[in-house]
Design brief:
Keywords: Signal. The chain is an all-alpha fold and 129 residues long. The chain has five helices and no strands.
Length: 129
């Protein structure tokens, strides 16, 4: 009878040790990894007056004429100074969409061109809608 009791005790302790080892092995961090949330399309807001960006029209016209020399970028780029790329893109996008810059233009190309002239980049995932 004693051997039956000791065998049951050994099996009980073995399963307890095994159970507690498996439940504490992860330290509470074994949950499945969450699926990454899809990135929303970047939509920044423009903290500048869009009408002031009309000075960028001269820069864009000079760039599109493909003249030798450098276009007068100072007034346009100075308006974008202090803005992060997303805000600068949002400002120029708003100006292009509102046709503040004059002609009907290819918006993505014009946006990229103006940002490049000012030493900026179109943020990845930014859509001028």
């Amino acid at each position: 009878m004693a051997s039956k009791t000791s065998a049951s005790l050994v099996i009980f302790l073995t399963f307890n040790i095994l159970f507690f080892t498996l439940t504490t092995a992860c330290g509470g961090g074994c949950s499945p990894t969450p699926k990454p949330k899809p990135k929303p399309k970047s939509t920044g807001s423009c903290p500048r007056d869009t009408l002031k960006l009309g000075v960028c029209a001269n820069v864009l016209k000079d760039l599109l004429k493909i003249q030798l020399g450098t276009p007068p970028v100072k007034p346009c780029c100075s308006l974008l100074k202090g803005l992060v790329d997303l805000e600068a893109a949002a400002c120029l996008c708003t100006a292009l969409k509102a046709n503040v810059l004059g002609n009907k233009l290819n918006v993505p190309v014009s946006l990229s061109l103006l940002l490049n002239v000012c030493g900026r980049k179109v943020p990845s995932g930014f859509v001028c809608a």
